[in-house]
Specification:
mainly alpha, 0% strand, 179 residues
Length: 179
């Protein structure tokens, strides 16, 4: 019998696949699975922000280029945090198809296929805020749904960081709208 707990903290049979693509027979804690996903998510987010910075350089928008480079830096800080938290753990090595993401794609990667040198500032900001909102929702859902107290605390911290990114983007979008 399987519960609806997305952390895998349930009585799933050994031959089944637990959430986030790891076979239940592999004894991994929910925190280890979470950190493996967070590392992947934050690495992708940093790369995507660097792509947006490059697009804004092509567009001649130095202000947004600098902003997106700063967001890439924040994503790399989150990546370092996730790696540090996993430092004493044996995190699973996962192939891309083994990750289990909402809608099949990392929350901060979805919709990024449209990043190109022809993208304007408004499109870039819409893409970035959507990504941050999905990242926040992902972490917040894990924090709210797990029965593992350690995982809940870590996921809540990551959700709070993503919420700060959403606020920064909202402020920038509002400031540009009034300018």
């Amino acid at each position: 019998m399987t519960s609806n707990d997305p952390t895998g903290a349930d009585d799933t049979p050994d031959d089944a696949t637990a959430p986030w693509g790891i076979p239940s027979s592999v004894e991994r804690s929910a925190v280890e699975r979470f950190l493996a996903h967070a590392i992947q998510l934050e690495a992708e987010a940093a790369r995507r922000y660097e792509e947006l910075a490059a697009a804004m350089q092509t567009d001649g928008n130095a202000e947004l280029k600098a902003f997106f480079l700063r967001m890439a830096h924040f994503s790399r800080l989150h990546l370092a945090d996730a790696k540090a938290r996993g430092g004493f753990r044996e995190l699973p090595k996962m192939a891309p198809e083994e990750y289990e993401w909402p809608e099949g794609t990392s929350p901060e990667t979805a919709e990024w296929a449209g990043v190109d040198a022809q993208m304007d500032a408004g499109d870039a900001l819409r893409l970035a805020i959507g990504s941050e909102r999905r990242g926040h929702a992902y972490y917040a859902a894990i924090a709210a749904s797990t029965t593992d107290q350690e995982l809940s605390a870590i996921a809540r911290e990551f959700a709070d960081e993503e919420a700060q990114h959403v606020v920064e983007l909202e402020k920038l979008i509002a400031a540009r709208a009034t300018a």
